[in-house]
Design goal:
- The structure is a homodimer of 135-residue chains.
- With 135 residues, chain A is α+β, with helices and mostly antiparallel strands.
- Chain A has a domain of 87 residues.
- In chain A, 21% of the residues lie in helices and 38% in strands.
- In chain A, strand 4 and strand 5 form a beta hairpin.
- In chain A, helix 2 packs antiparallel against helix 3.
- Chain A is elongated and about 50 Å long.
- Chain A starts with a strand and ends in a 5-residue tail after the last strand.
- Chains A and B meet through strand 2, strand 3, strand 4, strand 5 and strand 6 of A and strand 2, strand 3, strand 4, strand 5 and strand 6 of B.
């Protein structure tokens, strides 16, 4: 018997360059971005946002000058943010089993992070997701 | 002055179908997968793995029958796992600022999750990452 399938979800990637130092060096802003993205995309948080400071590492080919890493588990999947303060770089993922419009989340990110430019990609995930329970 | 740039990182996506119910319905296995992937890819955890149970939601177009969601913040970025138990589906992300070989992580995931098939994709991230600090 063949299985009816649907697309599982969508995944927005936002990798931004040339953000101001003080914007990336702000733990509370990282928490706020996680919660605001959740709201703007119409999603629902399952936990409080979890943000930690990393002092960086010389072991990673000198790539990591330190920054904040944050995560929010949402009903729909997850949202993550990582800042690399001294490089002006921030990398954000918004992964949801619910389709969402990227217009408001992207306008918001550009407004608060003030990047010089950004790589933006929206992917589909789980194209062979079963439409009904199999167990 | 033009800026020297390097590739920031790599992101492995593993979306697997037809996994056994009992494999996906195992909170401890979700924690173990997060830690084992971290080790197999030569990465370093910054926190304990965080795994929560979701009871599912009828609001998400009936897509979410419930499962476990977990994440691990690592020095190199993050690892996440979401199981949708009654659909036999699991979706995993391994995102690192360090290049990594996918052979061992993928062999491990196929061995423990026993999927019928999987969508596997390795992406590059942050292609315009500054080679040196800009602040």
């Amino acid at each position: 018997m063949s299985l009816d399938t649907v697309q599982f979800g969508e995944h927005l990637i936002y990798d931004a360059y040339g953000c101001p130092f003080e914007v990336l060096n702000d733990e509370n802003l990282c928490k706020k971005i996680l919660l605001d993205l959740c709201d703007l995309a119409g999603m629902h948080a399952l936990i409080e946002p979890h943000v930690i400071k990393s002092d960086g590492s010389i072991a990673l080919n000198g790539k990591d000058p330190g920054g904040f890493s944050g995560f929010l588990i949402i009903e729909e999947s997850h949202i993550s943010v990582h800042t690399f303060i001294k490089r002006g770089y921030v990398t954000i993922d918004l992964y949801s089993c619910k389709e969402f419009n990227t217009q408001k989340p992207l306008a918001y990110l550009n407004s608060v992070l003030k990047p010089k430019n950004a790589d933006i990609l929206k992917m589909t995930r789980g194209l062979k997701y079963p439409k009904e329970n199999i167990y």
